[in-house]
Design brief:
By secondary structure, this protein is of the alpha/beta class. About 45% of the residues lie in helices and about 15% in strands. Bound molecules: S-adenosylmethionine.
């Protein structure tokens, strides 16, 4: 939290976007450091979080927008904002949503197979498990969950749903149990639930588009900070930052140099990890990786 604010604020009266508003913890921390003429834009796919936010104590202009951060450029345009000084993406879901059994994200609480960040979208986890074909399911479990038993699990899902469609998180739990020794059960559950969640929310496509939109809207000297929580997500962020920090040199320069500077500079060559103290206060931060870049051109 402190690192994000310290790195992100380059102009105390600038415009800052929290692209994953959640319960507004980072926005509040930013507001505490900003001047009264700064503008804050809070975006979240989950409108219930925006509706429940208590704005008291925030003295800057705060615009809360129900949107996917992949649509950042349209959101800013509709608010007549042309460029911004800092953007934060703190990926994934917030702990309150995870703890709410009715949202279907948690494998230790029975609940409906929902898993939508945005409850106005039609695709749910139940639809994925009941409608996708075996190959598509296997690809999701393998690519988004790195689950070794992906093929066998997908086969079992397709066999089992003809008699009993998937309704509850327990139905998915039972499939995972069939293919996992008790010692590895919890890890397998988190891989499989993560994979289905990524598919339901098109998380990787949204991340790629969101990163691009963020760089497009940053002012020169503005910064983008991204916190990711698993290696697949971090890899997308890392590779995109590498791609945008160096471009292939034009043909006339190729004999002398292979690359030219891109539109960003990477400020964190190694990701920033949480301190032992932060992990103790918030155990979910243990897998967090923070990467920051600055727009140069
Ligand atoms: C880890 S939480 C953010 C917590 C927040 N930084 C705080 O301090 O309370 C991630 C939030 O991002 C939202 N989210 C995830 N992907 C999103 C996307 N593509 N567009 C907009 N919001 C997204 C989720 O709904 C969730 O509320």
């Amino acid at each position: 939290m402190h690192e994000v604010v310290d790195w992100l604020v380059t102009d105390k009266n600038g415009v800052y976007v929290d692209g994953t508003f959640g319960r507004g913890g980072h926005t509040r921390a930013l507001a505490d450091q900003l001047g009264s003429s700064a503008t804050l834009v809070g975006i979240d796919q989950d409108n219930s979080l925006l509706l429940n936010f208590d704005k008291s104590g925030i003295h800057q202009t705060l615009l809360l927008q129900h949107a996917n951060f992949e649509n950042l450029e349209q959101v800013l345009k509709s608010n007549k904002i042309n460029s911004v000084n800092g953007i934060l993406f703190d990926l994934g879901l917030n702990s309150a949503t995870l703890a709410d059994a009715a949202r279907g994200f948690s494998f230790d609480r029975p609940g409906p197979l929902d898993m939508r960040f945005d409850q106005s979208q039609p695709l749910t986890a139940a639809l994925v498990l009941n409608e996708y074909d075996e190959t598509a399911l296997s690809k999701i479990l393998f690519e988004y969950g790195e689950e070794k038993a992906a093929r066998r699990m997908s086969h079992a899902i397709v066999q089992s749903r003809t008699a009993h469609p998937f309704v509850s998180t327990n139905d998915l739990r039972e499939i995972v149990a069939q293919f996992t020794p008790p010692k590895f059960f919890v890890k397998a559950l988190s891989r499989v639930f993560q994979a289905v969640r990524i598919e339901v929310n098109h998380e990787f496509a949204a991340l790629r588009s969101g990163l691009k939109a963020a760089l497009n809207t940053l002012a020169i000297g503005g910064r983008l900070a991204v916190i990711s929580y698993h290696s697949l997500e971090d890899r997308i962020v890392k590779h995109y930052f590498q791609e945008e920090s160096q471009y292939p040199a034009p043909p006339e320069l190729q004999p002398y140099q292979a690359t030219v500077p891109g539109r960003i500079k990477i400020l964190t060559h190694k990701p920033i990890l949480p301190s032992a103290d932060e992990i103790q206060r918030n155990s979910r931060s243990r897998s967090a990786k923070l990467r920051i870049v600055e727009r140069m051109a």
